[in-house]
Amino acid sequence: VQLVESGGGLVQPGGSLRLSCAITAFTFSRYAMSWYRQAPGKERELVAGITSGGVTTNYADSVKGRFTISRDNAKNTVYLQMNSLKSDDTAVYYCKVYLPGYMRDYWGQGTQVTVSS
């Protein structure tokens, strides 16, 4: 199982970024996916989640109305569109999947997002 994030970078406050997470080695469309983030000195926190079919999503209060999670099951990819970025959004962003057959979480390597002027 491999999860590879991309799309991070440096952006000014108010700007946008789209993160991608490409997944290999399992039937992607069967599983819910999540994005997490971890800022320096803070615990990792859930940012957004999406069900296997993409119908239901959930968001942390801090990103509601600014971030959108989506998925393309044909491309085995989950996305996080981030708009109106703030300095507080600066963190390493990770995608995650829980595989019940293996009874564990799988994480990507993370992608750095820095919001600064």
Description:
- This protein is mostly beta strands and about 120 residues long.
- Helices cover about 0% and strands about 50% of the residues.
- The strands form 2 sheets. Strands 2, 4, 5, 6, 9, 10 and 11 form a 7-stranded mixed sheet that branches.
- A hairpin with a 4-residue loop joins strand 9 and strand 10.
- The protein is globular.
- The N and C termini lie far apart (about 35 Å).
TL;DR of this structure?
This protein is mainly beta and about 120 residues long. The chain has strands spanning about 1-5, 10, 15-25, 35-40, 45-50, 55-60, 65-70, 75-80, 90-100, 105, 110-115. A hairpin with a 4-residue loop joins strand 9 (about 90-100) and strand 10.
Shape, please? globular
Number of strands: 11
Q: What is the average of the pLDDT values?
A: 95
Query: How far apart are the first and last residues' alpha carbons, in Å?
Result: 37 Å
Secondary structure class reads: mainly beta
User: Helix count, per DSSP?
Assistant: 0
β content, as a range? over 45%
In percent, how helical is the residue content? under 10%
